[in-house]
Amino acid sequence: MKKTALLFLSLIVLSACTNDEGEETNIEPCGGREFMYYSIDGGSKVNIDAYTGKLLIGQGADGDAYDIWSDDNFYLHTSTTETGVYQYIVDYHNESGVNLFIPGIIDPFNAGTTGIDIQFVIEDNGTEVGECIRITFNGTYNDANGNNHTISGELQIQLDIVHQ
Hints:
This protein has about 160 residues and is mainly beta. The protein has one helix and eleven strands.
């Protein structure tokens, strides 16, 4: 009985690692590598930990949307899940684009950030739990003192939640 159960389990594992032609496949979302980071003025990367990726069905200005956040005060909201190039916007429910909120940095309401001109590229657009979301971004903004800064970043995470 133990040998039969072990053989059955082995077949399940092997079939999950090969396609119909018997070729090995990558079964880990995002190539087994998840990360989020941003950089200000070309400085050191600020790594973001403890993040969650959520798909909001029909809740963006253009249909389904992503809601990505972390416990490290990093929030990114999209108006769509379609791959493509998008500009920074304030209200992802009613405008087409991507909203980024990093308290004290990209924070037009509380920190006086102005002149926000950030371009986002949705490169991978997972729509099922476990699939990969990959977004890159770069652009400029002015801090509360009027100083111009550059910002760039990237996130590659698996989708954790689908919310109807």
